[in-house]
Amino acid sequence: MTIANGKFLLQGPEDAEITILLAHGAGGPMDSASMNAAARTLAESDFRVARFEFAYMAGRRSTGLKKPPPRAETLKGEYLAVIDELGATGTLIIGGKSMGGRVASMIADDLYAAGKIAGLLCLGYPFHPPGKPEDLRTAHLIELKTPTLICQGTRDQFGAREEVSRYALSETIEILWLEDGDHDLKPRKAVSGFTAADHLRTVAGTVRAWSDRLRDRRTPG
Q1: Which pLDDT score is estimated for 91?
Q2: N or C: which end of the chain has fewer CB within 10 A?
Q3: pLDDT tens digits, one per residue of 95-140
Q4: For the domain that residue 82 is a member of, what is the CATH number?
Q5: What pLDDT is stored for residue 129 in this prediction?
Q6: Which residues does residue 122 pair with via DSSP β-bridges, in sequence order?
């Protein structure tokens, strides 16, 4: 069940050992169809999932005016403030869909070094704008220290498997490739034999195994 709690949408067990904080993409709100599906599937795997909206998206919701999103770099402080406001206990993983995950990746290392987060989860990382493969958004990913899991469709127009395989990325980054998935991780069933629900179950299972390793790594003894 989804519970509205101020600026957050919360799902999953309240006493879950691991909380995942997710920000939305540049053009879709925190309750978009893809965010709803991903959060629901993660919550069903016993994660506490929290979603929030950046101020510009909340403004769209209240005014109905669709102003362009700000540059991702300008949203770092807002994400940091949201982490403090959430006040999660136990293990915290930050991330988001597309731009939300990108913003989280920009603040992750300082938080990880301070022991405030255990990892970074990106659902469809925007490695480059569609149609502009030369305009890479990967410079900070080369030296990233935070354990990171990127769940990416093989035909994602923001970074397909053939392109990403050539990038220099930190060894802390793991990529789960979802066959024929698009930027929402959705495959064409007639092509791949998979459904969107199949891929989300794979995501949830992979996130569970990955995050359990991170939690155990940070537990003394």
Answers
A1: 95
A2: C
A3: 999 999 999 999 999 999 999 999 999 999 999 999 999 999 999 9
A4: 3.40.50.1820
A5: 97
A6: 96, 150
- The answer to whether the CB of 155 falls within 8 A of the CB of 177 is no
Instruction: Determine the Cα–Cα distance for residues 120 and 102; give it in Å rounded to an integer.
Output: 10
Q: Which domain holds residue 131?
A: 3-218
| Res 46 pLDDT > 70 | yes
Cα distance between residue 61 and residue 53, in whole Å: 10
Give which of 212, 210, 191 is closest to 202, Cα–Cα: 210
Beta-carbon contacts of 220 under 8 Å, excluding residues fewer than 6 positions away, are: none
Average pLDDT across the chain, whole number: 94
pTM for the whole thing? 0.95
Structural domains counted in the chain: 1
E strands in 124-199: 148-153, 173-178
Strand, helix or coil for residue 106: helix
Quote the distance between the C-alpha of residue 5 and its chain's center: 20
Residues in CB range of 197: below 8 A, 6 or more apart:
37, 41
Helix or strand (DSSP H, E) at 195 = none
Q: What is residue 18's three-state secondary structure?
A: strand
Residue 194: both structure tokens together? 């998979």
Residue 197, both tokens: 């629900």
Residue 6 Ramachandran class (φ > 0 left, ψ -120 to 50 alpha, else beta): left
